[in-house]
Amino acid sequence: MPRVSQDHLDARRRQILDGSRSCFARFGYEGATVRRLEEATGLSRGAIFHHFRDKESLFLALAEDDAHRMAEVVAEQGLVQVMRDLLSSPRPPREAEHPADWLGTRLEVSRRLRTDPEFRARWAERSQQLTQATRERLARQREAGKLRDDVDIDVLTSFLELVLEGLVSHLAMGLPADDLEPVLDLVEETVRRHRRGS
């Protein structure tokens, strides 16, 4: 029996994640049945669950993948840039074909955190990536003299994360997003260091 290359396995895993993202966004966690996951990915249940132990592991991998991609943007450009990206296209770069897919997954994570203690425990291990990337970015900005120094970095991190969650909720309700750029300008201005007399 020929060995399957790592590139092939990685491509298959990516195919499953991309198809599943659309399915979870459209139907929610409970509505994303195995049959629907098969249709969305174009693969059999055997192929899907060869890569992921069960539906919850698949959903966690998907949410972790999104968090990792967001953390990369945060490390390079900051959490406000993630919010700007959401306004211009409510999905991370190189992500799902339908703009609401990433947002739908994000909302499903929030819902399950509130209602499912077992999921909350499993997700806690993975959720620190974005927070850590934000803290590290803010620390670098402070060292460079670009960040206000009268507020603790943990407080600024919490502030930015709360703004992100508010933006996600705003978009989820279908409220207009075309007038929010000045709001994000204000958020950025709030965390910047201000020079006296300027």
UniProtKB/TrEMBL annotation:
Keywords: DNA-binding, Transcription, Transcription regulation. Residues 33-52 bind DNA. The keyword Transcription regulation applies. Residues 10-70 form the HTH tetR-type domain. Pfam families: TetR_N. Signal peptide: none annotated. This is Transcriptional regulator, TetR family. It comes from Goodfellowiella coeruleoviolacea.
